[in-house]
Design brief:
With about 240 residues, the chain is mainly alpha-helical. The chain is built from four helices and two strands; from the N terminus they run H-H-H-E-E-H. The protein has helices at about 1-95, 100-135, 145-180, 195-225, and strands at about 180-185, 185-190. The protein has a two-stranded antiparallel ribbon. Helix 2 (about 100-135) runs antiparallel to helix 3 (about 145-180).
Length: about 240
């Protein structure tokens, strides 16, 4: 009887130990699976955030680039009409025929009128592009991306200054052209302070030349940065 009791007690003890071992492994597996699920969830969330930032970064950069291209295009048209206006103006000053001088003067005024809205629109787009390039920085943590975006911000700010200077120069040129007439076979000013306006025009053109050098230097830096293999439109994989 004692043997049978001892045997039953041993079996019961073994059963309890086996149960404990099974429960321990079961709990360990549950904890392990829970950790795996947590890691998967964290990685999925991280990947989704990266993909979302990639989409926002690419979209914002493209919008910025479109605005920059529009600003450049309008600036080019403005420059075209300004250069024509300046050419007609110098031709008017050197003309000894009153009819031809008036024709050149009118052509100068017309091209000034065409250049002004182009410069105004270009300046607005340069400013918008600068804001868009700056806001694009929030979608990346990469220093190389941030560096290039800062270059574009500097470029668009410089572009805005260029178009404003040319806008002012165009206004001065138009005022000068409108206030010259033909006397004794030569062009003469109608306003007493026309020489002051001419000084403002020349000073503005000098400032424009200085800013143009800055603009072209920044553009060269961007071109060199891109030549080295950097591409702003690509996946941002850490």
């Amino acid at each position: 009887m004692a043997r049978e009791f001892t045997r039953n007690l041993l079996i019961m003890g073994l059963s309890i130990m086996v149960g404990i071992v099974v429960i321990t492994f079961f709990l360990a597996d549950v904890v392990y699976q829970s950790q795996i699920q947590q890691l998967n969830s964290e990685h999925v969330s991280e990947i989704e955030n990266i993909e979302e930032n990639n989409i926002f970064f690419t979209s914002s950069f493209l919008e910025s680039s479109v605005l920059l291209d529009s600003a450049r295009e309008d600036r080019a048209f403005g420059n075209y009409h300004f250069d024509l206006a300046h050419l007609f103006f110098t031709s008017a000053l050197s003309e000894r025929n009153e009819t031809k001088m008036d024709a050149y003067r009118l052509d100068c005024e017309k091209n000034c009128s065409k250049a002004l809205p182009k410069y105004e629109l270009s300046s607005q787009n340069f400013i918008l592009a600068s804001s868009f390039f700056e806001s694009t920085k929030q979608y990346t943590n990469f220093q190389s991306y941030d560096t290039l975006l800062s270059m574009y911000v500097n470029l668009t700010n410089s572009g805005a200054k260029l178009t404003l200077l040319r806008y002012n120069a165009t206004i001065y040129l138009k005022m000068i052209a409108e206030n010259i007439t033909f006397v004794n076979n030569s062009a003469v000013p109608l306003m007493d302070n026309l020489s002051d306006i001419m000084d403002l025009f020349n000073q503005t053109m000098m400032e424009y030349g200085g800013e143009l050098g800055n603009y072209e230097e920044i553009q060269d830096e961007i071109d060199e940065y891109n030549i080295e293999g950097f591409s702003p439109i690509r996946e941002q994989v850490p």
